[in-house]
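Repro:
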Amino acid sequence: MRTKGWLILFIPLALGALLLLACGRKPATRQKALVPVVALPDAARKWTPLPVRPLSAQLARVRARAMQAAAATRELGWLAEPGMTELSGWEYGTRTKEMADALGGEELHGLSRLAAAGGMLPESTDLATLAASFAAASAGAAYSPLDKQVLLLADPHGKNPAGDSLLTHEFVHALQDQHFDLLQLLLARPYSFDREEALFAVVEGDAMDVQRRLEQPDAFARRPLEDVARAEDARFGEYRKEIGALFPPLLTETFIFRYRDGLRFVETVRRKGGARGVDELFRRPPASSEQVLHPEKYFANELPREIALDEQAFAAAGWHTSAATPLGEIGVRGLLLKALSAPDAARAAAGWGGDRAYLFERAGGTPLFLWQTAWDRPEDAAEFFRAYNTLCGRAGESVDKSDPAQSVWRAGGRVTIVRHDGDGVLIVRGADADVRAALELARR
């Protein structure tokens, strides 16, 4: 099936096969300042120019209608006229791969290794290639903020595969870019997978919200928000069977999150603050996927707890940090879907309070994966501990049951230790000779 349009900036640190300690409500901790990126990524400078092709009269009419509908429904005016280019399948696939390479950068390569070290992806998986394949298989049109154009996949039989709804979605992205500078938002650093997914949920949720309000102008505004989310989830049933069957669960679940939960989140904000409230989401984006899944936490400014291991202690032991990022509540949920039902995975992830996953490497050694998670309550941590052990049990063999707060698993020549302590759970995976020493370093 074709999705209803999506932004080509699919930096899927969704790690498709990817994948401190206080009780109660999380305090609003200070977040690290983000550094905006305004320069064009170097990789994009080497692209071949897009072909210059006039649009057919039919496409020109569809484009004009989509631009007008996007501006009127989103309540934003055009600052410039965005372009639209029709591409062949080969051209579209090539540009998709170029976009993934340019916008993912080194983070994608580091996260590919992190995911493999954590047992979440097969060795040598390249997330940039996976992202491009996913995009090419999923979308019939996309907005490219690097080209400032809507890119349309041409039908090889000469038929127009795009309709007003699909193109309106993509022109909403063009409006977002003109008013809020998507590149500056999406390429801000330091990189965080969790924060990036939350931002993608705003970008896609906004465009989906426009689509649904155009398709169901009166009924949509009256529908309870939970019904909206259920309807969107049902729309992805066929998608899960077709495209989703080709990719790991976390990749597909994160992709669905951007649309299903992004729409519910944006519509929640719109009903509270109107179009200007949605504008504010781009000026003050959600800090985590948790805030998207639970909008009340966005309104309360309930921020994730900051997690940090003593990297200097690992450096003293010969390890260097190759990648580190929070995976967030949606990352936890998507990972657990490999072993649990969707409702059980959602419940086990719902008490998330903060996390950070690390990849440590050293010359000639087996990569070391550490994942420190913090939970709202000790009971939430215990639930995640049980759920993660269920996940480990699907792929490995338990080798030590002497400590009820700690489990040890062996699979694929690696050892995984899962340690529950209060409202935290620590996961360490690597060579047998390294994991116990790393566990002690992490617990200091």
